[in-house]
Amino acid sequence: MPPAALLRTLPHHEKLFATLAACDVVGVQSWRDRDALLGYFREELAALTDADGSVSMPDGRRFLACALPIGIDTARVAR
Questions:
Q1: C-alpha 70: how far from its chain's center?
Q2: Could you read off the pLDDT of 67-79 as tens digits, one per residue?
Q3: What is the C-alpha to C-alpha distance for residues 73 and 12, in angstroms, rounded to an integer?
Q4: What is the pLDDT of residue 74?
Q5: Residue 37: what pLDDT?
Q6: CA 77/CA 68 separation, integer angstroms
Q7: CA–CA dist 75, 27 (Å, integer)
Q8: pTM (2 d.p.)
Q9: Which of 11, 16, 17, 50 has the lowest tally of Cβ within 10 angstroms?
């Protein structure tokens, strides 16, 4: 996930991330991605974030952002 400054350049970024904030859990691939996401919510949406990935939005909505890396069994997929 790119840093907050780059995420701000996405068209309709406000709507996109407001929609993510409506979820209970938002998972991304890596811890660095999670930290970038938390940075966006802090910088752009005035959210409060904790080290555990919990996010508190100004309207009181809370959700968890976490790293949930995925992988595939490439040998099995190749068969």
A1: 15
A2: 998 888 788 888 8
A3: 35
A4: 81
A5: 92
A6: 21
A7: 26
A8: 0.81
A9: 11
